[in-house]
Amino acid sequence: MRTFAEITPQLENLAVEVPSWAYGNSGTRFKVFSTPGTPRTVQEKIDDAAQVHLHTGLAPSVALHIPWDSVDDYAALCRYAEDRGLRLGTVNSNTFQDDTYKFGSLTAADPSVRQKAIDHHLACVDIMNETGSRDLKIWLADGSNYPGQNDLRQRQETLAESLATIYAALGDEQRLVLEYKFFEPAFYATDVPDWGTSYVHVSELGDRAKVCLDTGHHAPGTNIEFIVAQLLRLGKLGAFDFNSRFYADDDLIVGAADPFQLYRIMVEVIRGGGLAPDSDLAFMLDQCHNIEDKIPGQIRSVLNVQEMTARALLLDREALTKAQAANDVLAANDILMDAFYTDVRPELASWRQTKGLPADPMSTFLESGYLQQIASDRVGGQQAGWGA
Ligand code: PSV
Ligand code: MN
Ligand code: MN
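That's the L-rhamnose isomerase sequence above. Prediction below.
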């Protein structure tokens, strides 16, 4: 196995973008629980995100969701983030909470609905121009509930046209990342249900269009690391939305349900060059903290990603390649498991200290008094945008 000292230069390249919506109240369709100190404004979400970066050194940017995070002055918002050591990152569009989009947005049969959805994305690009954001992330709720409800094929044509219009509005340094999800809210057919469909569309668009892989958006048992390997091989994996799932789109803390899966994903990321200094692969969280405290939930999440990345970096790739070439099934599996079973937490703690970070970011944050402070300062926190 490699030593910890050998992997730190690569570990240094890891940065995880946090979502603004993780700091708002969220829940299920049964109940949204409020948390004392929940942000009331996007600025307060940025304040909370800054705490995650301050204690972990891992989360230098925060993703926005439009219109949840709409403001009058994005340049000022940018400065606000910079003053707190953060960048504004990916801009997420939202065409799933408006009555107009009941029968689809970018795929809608009604041209006026489609135009409204396209215009929303063009407005997102305008925002990106002000925030300096590189990525426009599109997740569509579009789909149908009953066989015969829609012309499946026509909707693919319509989607391609809508995406092309949006893509044409992007600047040379900007990208479009298209997320897929196998079901929900549509239950019969979803217009972008899988990585293949996303791949087909982004390939048609051009080099600056890529797939976004949300780890919670697959059927149970799906081999996600295979998808990672394939998309990296094709140069088309643009971004991750990390989270954990037990059942469906659970949006739980990444690495909580299945740390081994996260490890396997990171092994393929590293194998495919996704952690190299010149890689443009974005690591983002897409999570909601329904019952746990939000900032600690985010701290735990970025630390989980760091931990599994460190284990994946420890993997002795040379030995693995040899065992694979010799068809030594058990040796190959052993080599992969050796790195996975290595507890990297003590070495990560010492390494953090060498960088001026707390050895234990979670306890340092909890002892800082920040949670108590926001609980007394903030009254009437906002919902993340989800739930009833
Ligand atoms: C809906 O499933 C979703 O969770 C998608 O994963 C998006 O990335 C996210 O909402 C935010 O729009
Ligand atoms: Mn997502
Ligand atoms: Mn999701």
